[in-house]
Amino acid sequence: MQTLTGSGGHTGGATGTTVGGQERVGPHRIVAPLGTSGPEGGSAADGPRFHLAYSEPLGRVVVLMTPPEALAADPGFRVRFASEAGTSARLAGPAAAPVAGVAPQDEEPWVAYDCAPALPLPAALAAQGGPLPVPYVCQLGVSLAAAVLQAHTQGLVYAGLTPAAVLLTAAGPRLVAYGAVRAAAPGDGPRTAVPGLPPAWLPPEQHAGGVPRPLGDIYALGVVLAYAATGAHSPDPAALPEPLASVLAGCLAQDPAQRPRADALLQQLQQAQQALPAEPGQEQVPGAVAAALTAQLPSLPAQGPLTPPPGPGEPGGPGGPPAPGQTPETSAGAGAGETSVPPPRPGRRALLRGLAFGAAGLAVGGGGVYAYRRATEEDPPVYRTTPAKGAAPTPLWHYSLQGQEADSVSLVGKIAVVETMGALTAVNVRTGKKAWDSDVFADGGLIDLGRGQVLLIPTFGAMEVVELAGGKSKGAVEDYSANSKLSFQAAVGAVDGILYFLATRGSDMEEFSMVAYDTRKRAEVWNKPLPKGYGALGDPLSDGEKMKVRGRELLIPSAPTSGSAFTYLALDRRSGEKAWEQKYEGIEDYDGPSTFLTEAGILVSPSNDADMLRGFETRGAKKVWEQPMKEHFFSELTDTRSRVLYGTQGAEVTALSVKNGKPVWRTPVYSGGRFDVTNVVLSGTGGTLFYSNDAEVQAFDTRDGAPLWRFATVSEGGGSSGDGTGISGRVLAADDGIALVLSKDALYALPVD
User: Fold this and answer.
1) Burial of 143 (0-12, 13-18, 19+ CB in 10 A)
2) What's the CA gap between 193 and 121, in Å, rounded?
3) Whole-number Cα distances in Å, 510 to 500, 513, 536, 538
4) In angstroms, rounded to a whole number, what is the distance separating the alpha carbons of residues 312 and 727?
5) How many angstroms separate the Cα of 558 from the Cα of each of 177, 385, 538, 595?
């Protein structure tokens, strides 16, 4: 038997050691290479490799995936491989290959799937001697589309779907090699080729280094089905038979915006299947493929002893809680190297009886469509999950913005107010259900005024008070509109209904005042002209320290004017009178983005060359510490006790001591995008740090920086920008057990802590 090595056609053995003439990988003895080689399998020896292997912990044969030795020797690849393998245990549904084990981090990388006997799709075509029958390919497409849909509803992007990653088994198709594209190489540069993947099969938008996204999975699925129906290495919609041709042409569109989403593709494939003339056995695996599967049985070792099944009430047993690391769908091990004990492998007769797709495979499609539905009249259940190690928690809910792109989202209590194209929508963050929508125009965010009211902050025009419960306007505040004596510029904050904001004076807009306004009495409390050097047009302070309300004072930083020392002006919040003013001679040419004041009263500032981070006393301006830095430290985030600074340095998340600036921990992050757009947010308990970039959301344990999980959001396409692919999600806020994540056109709520 020739070998198939995942997406490639490598003919060598797996990465591992040889003991007594038999090759071993971790706790597995290699039984036989899996599949057939050839150009249709991939690009030679640089793809992942698959073997049948005897698992000593399980006592039976599994499908073992290992990377090529060249990649396995790369520490960066091993980290990415382990992360993707851990996340793959979260995949649910009949078409997701159960993950029986993952290599511990100190071993050569491998993943074991409990789905033997199995035959990769290229090997199936080789056994068939050509393309597979169209009815069978339609049924295969239905099952795989349902699996992709279910992954997308979980916030996962497969990024590894190739013909070699589709295994045909007695129970139907099984998907393996999740995340192979992400693991192959960092995703922030051009990809002329991905190891193990022919260039023609890479979604076009990823050739330039684009982050794998859901619509890329649709392209990859189109490639798989086109290959199964034609046997051709390069997907050509014109060569496809009907009714597949019309369906797959959309999948293979060069423009991601022209491809269908997974739910629409599933429906199209089901309709194509129904359009075929009904023939007995048309959904069964072709006879030659079935024979190749059964031919594997004599070469497999005898079934070893299984662990006794758990009794009633025991973990994993009837009526008992799940076993450690077990999930209802996969029973996959939670930690690296842990395994579960699914039923024994089938005998020859059971295998032959099972070589047809059952109704269970179709049920996933309906469930996936239901899971993907937009939040409407029913409240989805709110629950907590304990995911497998490395796997992101299943979202509590997903709320579609109907193709609109969110310009801003503000979290006020249990309500998220989303602004899209000037209109407002309020979503209950506990249920994912729409609370109300309004055509009240807002494009500058909002501020919580307390007592169930918010203030809409405009870029131009009047401020407006809105009831949070129903979205009704309580009236506009016209006094500070453009061309007024005092013109609103930037909000500082609100306390007990008193709004504090920066305003310009006069028509030249070069003089500034601080204003206190009672939004309940609709009356100005005070306004105080600011000395020269404080304030600027719009919100110029976004490049440095922000104005803020702190206790009984308003802290106003000097404008970022090159050549002047940084200064704080403190006003008494009740009267507007000057409380104190402090100049910081050590912070010169103030134009950096990372100078900020912590709640502990330490002003943290980088040097202009970003090679030093300094801490200053707020009152007195005494420098209390400085620490050398290899890269610029970006942060405005501290824990509730203001003991630790959390931020980013290049491709790392970092925790520093507020007391002395020394590192507490530093952890590398996956930077899969081309744009350096990042932010960090703490969970409500302070136990989890969320890092968001244009690739995904990553979670870290704040105690030691240990990676917890990664989450890639789904962009639904058709947004106002017209690119169809969207941007990665980012954590907006996290409180009371929920992290709110925004993608371009959808909201997600993740259970945390």
Assistant:
1) buried
2) 22
3) 19, 10, 7, 11
4) 47
5) 54, 47, 15, 12
Which tens digits make up the pLDDT trace of 252-307? 988 887 898 888 899 899 999 888 876 655 567 778 888 888 888 776 765 443 33
The per-residue pLDDT for range 22-38, each reduced to its tens digit, is: 688 888 888 888 854 44
Please count the other Cβ atoms lying within 10 Å of the Cβ belonging to residue 190. Answer: 10
Burial of 418 by CB count in 10 Å (0-12 exposed, 13-18 middle, 19+ buried)?
A: buried
Bridge partners (DSSP) of residue 691 are: 680, 698
DSSP 113-145: ES--SEEEHHHHHHHHTSPPPHHHHHHHHHHHH
Residue type (1 letter), 724:
G
CB 50 within 8 A of CB 180: no
> At residue 204, what is the residue type?
P
**Beta strand 390-391 with 707-711: parallel, antiparallel or unpaired?**
parallel
Both tokens assigned to 558: 């000097």
Q: Could you tell me where the beta strands, DSSP code E, fall in 563-651?
A: 566-572, 578-584, 596-597, 602-606, 612-617, 623-628, 634-638, 644-649
Cα–Cα dist 39/20, whole Å: 34
Measured CA to CA, the distance from residue 311 to residue 49 in angstroms comes to 38
For residue 456, list its beta bridge partners. 446, 464
Amino acid identity for residue 581 in this structure: E
Confidence (pLDDT) at 282? 56
pLDDT at 728 over 80: no
232, 197 Cβ separation under 8 angstroms: no
For residue 370, give the 3-state DSSP assignment.
helix
Grouping H, G, I as helix, E, B as strand and the rest as coil, residue 319 is coil
The token duo for 481 is 């509109």
Per-residue pLDDT tens digits for 410-419 = 888 888 888 8
* CB-based burial, 685-706: b 16+ in 10 Å, e otherwise: ebebbbbbbbbbbbbbebeebe
CA 172 – CA 192 distance, rounded (Å): 34
In angstroms, the CA 233 to CA 40 distance is 5
E strands, 318-431, where? 390-391, 397-400, 408-412, 415-420, 423-428
Residues 229, 231, 236: CA angle, nearest 5 degrees:
75
Q: Are 665 and 656 in contact (CB under 8 A)?
A: no
CA-closest candidate to residue 284, choices 131, 137, 125: 137
Q: How many CB atoms lie within 10 A of CB 585?
A: 11
CA–CA dist 704, 666 (Å, integer): 8
